[in-house]
Every structure is written in C-alpha cells, then in structure tokens.
Amino acid sequence: MRITITLVTTIFFLLAISSSIFPYPNGITGRTLKTTTNGCSTCHTFGSNVTGFFSGPDTVTAGQTVQFTLTITRVGGSGKLGCDIAAQNGTLALAQGNTYLQLVSGELTHQNAINLTTVTLPFNYTAPLTPGRDTLYATVDVGHAGNWNWAPNKKIVIKSATKITSNSNPINWYLKQNYPNPFNPITKIYYGVKEGTNITISIYDISGKIIAIPINSYHNPGEYELEFNASKYNLSSGIYFYVLRAGTYQEIRRMSLTK
C-alpha cells in the first residue's frame, strides 16, 4: 500500500515538473490576436518571463515573398519555448533550413518544445496581390504551465508592383514590348491606362497555362511601368506571353526568358 502511494506521488510530481517546463508539446495555433484576445490563458499565466519580437521589412511589394524572423527570449526562470505565428492577409511558409517550426492551418507553430533561452525563428511571408496593409501576429510561451506573452504586432505596407511614370491621360490604351527582351531574370513592361478602372496583367507559358498575375488592382489614368522578376515564379528559359486586360480592352505581347 505504501509502495502504491509512493508511486502515485512520484507520477504526480513528474507530471507537475513536466507541465512546468514544456509548452504545448507539439505546437498549437489559433492563439494570436488575429483570432482571440485570450492567448494561451487556458494553459498559461500571462507574464513577462517570455518575450518575442519580429524583424523584417516594413514595406513589401504585392505578391512578393520575403523572410521575417521571430525572436523568443526566456527572461529568468526555466522552461522550454513555444509560439504561434499568424498573418492577417498574407501567406506564411517554412523558410529553408527550418528545424523548429511547422505549418498548421495556415499558421506557424513549434514542432516540439524548444530547449533554448533565446531562439530566432526564420519564416517566409508572401504578400497579398492587392496593395494595402497587413499584420503579423505572434503569441509566445515558456513552459506548459508557465508564462505566455504577446509579441508586438508587425505592421506591413503592401505596395503596388507598378510605378506611375506620367499622370497625363494617354490618347489610347496601350501595352508596349517589354525591355530588355530577351531578359534574365528581370524585365520592365510599360502600359497606358486611358480611364480609371481595374487592370490585370497575366503571364502565360507557351501552352497557354497562366503562371502569374503580377497586376490586379485599380488604376487611375496614366502611364505605368511594371518590373517583372521571373525568379519569383521559378520560370525556366522559354517563350512567355503577357496580357493586359481592362474592361473590354485586351492586348497581348510575347517575351523571351533566357538563362
């Protein structure tokens, strides 16, 4: 009887130790300010024993993929680290060489508790195709029954992939030949907008398959310049077509990528 009581006591003691040094074992999502104001309060106490902050660009081009990092630091005490990272509108993905994170339901979380005092976690972010603003959120924690905390939100400006070269109204719609052509991997596409409307520029391969839509946004009248970077879309050498559409207006031109 005494052996049984001792065994039970030992088990509860080990469970208590385990719960205090591990975050949610295999990661958890839906705990950032994107979706809740409760954070990790079901398992943790809000506190300053753990902090987190984002590093990365403040401005990103629409459709561009860039790398950000989240740094988590345990401030005193003990316990292993964990996190939940979310984007309001953009898309998150694992960065090359990632060893700590996993993608779950569109958010990034730890694969296992991170046994470090400080860890910097790189990840990829792809901006929406439409210019505007976006926000990165993160909730960080230390120990399964330890502290959790918000990382300061990271505000991102999503700029257009085009720049206006003239505010004068062109006489007609137009789509010029890209320059340089052939190109590798960057070329510029020039086009004119006669009246305010939504513009799309789509890129097709030689089979007619659409491979990119670098422009899909409202334009005021004017002359515009689009810088197209084929490396963003992992394109191989060959012939491609780009099509400008605006209401009933449509024009198509051919370009050649040479690597």
Task: Write up what this structure looks like.
This protein is mainly beta. It has 2 domains: 29-159, Immunoglobulin-like; 162-257, Sandwich (Immunoglobulin-like). It is 8% helix and 51% strand. The chain has 1 helix and 19 strands. It has one helix spanning 2-21, and strands at 45-46, 50-55, 59-61, 65-74, 81-87, 91-94, 101-104, 107-110, 118-126, 132-142, 147-159, 162-166, 174-175, 186-193, 197-205, 210-219, 222-229, 238-246, 249-257. The strands form 4 sheets. Strands 1, 3, 5, 7, 8, 10 and 11 form a 7-stranded mixed β-sheet that branches. A hairpin with a 2-residue loop joins strand 18 (238-246) and strand 19. The model is unreliable at 1-22 (pLDDT under 50).
Task: Give the overall average pLDDT.
Answer: 85
Major sheet details = 7 strands, mixed
Oligomer: single chain
Number of strands: 19
The portion of residues assigned to helices is under 10%
SSE run? HEEEEEEEEEEEEEEEEEEE
For the termini, the CA-CA separation is 78 Å
Strand fraction equals over 45%
Tell me the number of helical segments per DSSP (H or I, 4 or more residues long). 1
Q: In CATH terms, what is the fold-level topology of the largest domain? A: Immunoglobulin-like
Task: Give the name of the CATH architecture of the largest domain.
Answer: Sandwich
Radius of gyration: 25 Å
Label the structural class: mainly beta
CATH class of the largest domain: Mainly Beta
Number of domains: 2
Which blocks of ≥5 consecutive residues have pLDDT under 50?
1-22
CATH homologous superfamily identity of the largest domain: Reeler domain
Please state the overall shape, judged from the principal axes of the Cα atoms: elongated
